[in-house]
Write a structure and sequence with these properties.
By secondary structure, the protein is an alpha+beta fold. 35% of the residues lie in helices and 26% in strands.
Length: 179
């Protein structure tokens, strides 16, 4: 898959809107098969984030950056959503690499404050997080299932992973209830 496909996905990310997910779905092959990791959550607590990450088996190049993974998080009770990529480069390098691409893509219509380039706080993804955070009436109603956005190992594994997440989340819910 040409790097232009990854660049198309990253360019769609800059707008921080629902179109990004359509573009990612169309271009998901560029990220190859991935081990999708969904973290358990309390099923009854709508304020607890639902977090999923996708570490890439090998970095994917876009705009000269090396994308190492993707993450998305939803807090349904607050309509708070975050999604984006991790790059191995440092924030200042990412900012320089994306400066021209971002202004060419967005023109005069950036979503103020939604897109950010920050140092990664994830030990699994050193470097930089580049992504979006929106809340409230943002035009994003919910995040699509991460299993639909990336190629998982195979369909039976994806179904098994979803079931395992449900069981782990049910166990966490029971554990939290006992506190």
């Amino acid at each position: 898959m040409p790097p232009e496909s990854a660049e198309k996905v990253l360019a769609a990310l800059f707008a921080c809107d629902a179109q990004f997910f359509k573009t990612l779905d169309e271009e998901k092959a560029v990220f190859k098969r991935a081990n999708i990791v969904a973290h358990p959550y309390n099923l009854l607590d709508t304020g607890e984030p639902r977090t999923s990450v996708v570490p890439f088996s090998e970095p994917v190049e876009a705009y000269g950056l090396h994308l190492t993974g993707y993450a998305q998080q939803a807090v349904p009770g607050k309509s708070d959503y975050a999604w984006g990529f991790y790059a191995s480069e440092q924030p200042d390098e990412v900012g320089r690499a994306l400066e021209t691409a971002r202004s060419d893509t967005l023109g005069a219509n950036p979503r103020d404050g939604a897109f950010a380039i920050t140092a990664s706080d994830s030990p699994d993804f050193p470097g930089t997080r580049l992504g979006c955070r929106v809340a409230g009436a943002s035009g994003v109603e919910d995040l699509p299932s991460i299993y639909d956005l990336f190629l998982s190992r195979d369909i039976s594994t994806a179904l098994s992973d979803k079931f395992d997440l449900f069981v782990a989340s049910a166990m966490k819910t029971v554990s939290d209830f006992g506190r």
